[in-house]
Amino acid sequence: MNKKILITGGTGYIGSHTAVELIQKGYEVFIIDNFSNSHSSVLNGIKAITGIEPHFTKLDLNQSDEVKKYFETHHDLDAVIHFAALKAVGESTANPLLYYKNNIISLLNVLENMIEFQIPHLVFSSSCTVYGEPEKLPIKENAPIKPAVSPYGNTKQIAEEIINDTIRSNEHLKACLLRYFNPIGAHPSGLIGELPIGIPNNLVPYITQTAAGIRDVLRVYGDDYDTPDGTCIRDYIHVVDLAKAHIAALERLIDKAYESDCEIFNIGTGRGNSVLEVIEAFQKVNNIKLNYIIDDRREGDVEKVWADTTKANKVLGWKAELTIEDALRDAWNWEKNYRGIH
Q1: Beta-bridge partners for 5
Q2: How far apart are CA 204 and CA 282, in angstroms?
Q3: Which CATH code fits 4-184+236-267?
Q4: Structure pTM?
């Protein structure tokens, strides 16, 4: 029997790429999403790549009665990969209550039903934002958890605490928390990619939309940070590599290879690139000139952060294999394909 895996937020950016990797490995994939920041067309992309249509239900995870009904119907799931959450740092600063309500209640509803129906395995989509402004780089998993710089980051800190507390009181539930850095790129087929609704909050879709003429100008938020070129530094990881990390985490749980009931792994490349470096790499690899300007700093942005990935490499047996150039080529290929640009 194929293992049945539920992906919450499975039509979103990382969720959809993870769905593809799971299907290609023979898992039976179930997706729930409310399309708050994704499109139903993503399901067509998943099917076009894999030849298999995932089981899909439109569902808002904050509606506890609806979530309960779903789990009653799908009580034989083997694991849940929980992506569903709002994820824009700037928006969370402007509207914190929206983030606390959405990101925490949805998790509580998922966990309550996992416990009731004894679904044993959870892979949780956490974030490097849990580290706040780091004291030293690269960041290890045992780095101190400092006050979050944004409400979004705080929802991830709170979510990790909730999962840990829940696991301590429920012997049937095991979890793997993946703290990932900055996902970029798209599936090399060009059939799925990052498709934010409205003005992108993330750098690379902002770049590709500017290159495609959707945005007049690319805004670089701040060039007066304490970095070599003054712009923020991030650890940019190809979304396909990131999706594969979820498979590695899932299989570690299913195979009972874990060393503790709730394990944590940083998922990144172990390298940092500045905003201007990414822009220059995009221009070079795709032979395009971007129109960009320097704007004021954006509230909630950490100055520089990149991962120590030793634990994921050695313990999880996973390593990022694709380059930033691969990611920027794939991202532009996806944008062109989606917009019909030749």
Answers
A1: 29, 79
A2: 9
A3: 3.40.50.720
A4: 0.97
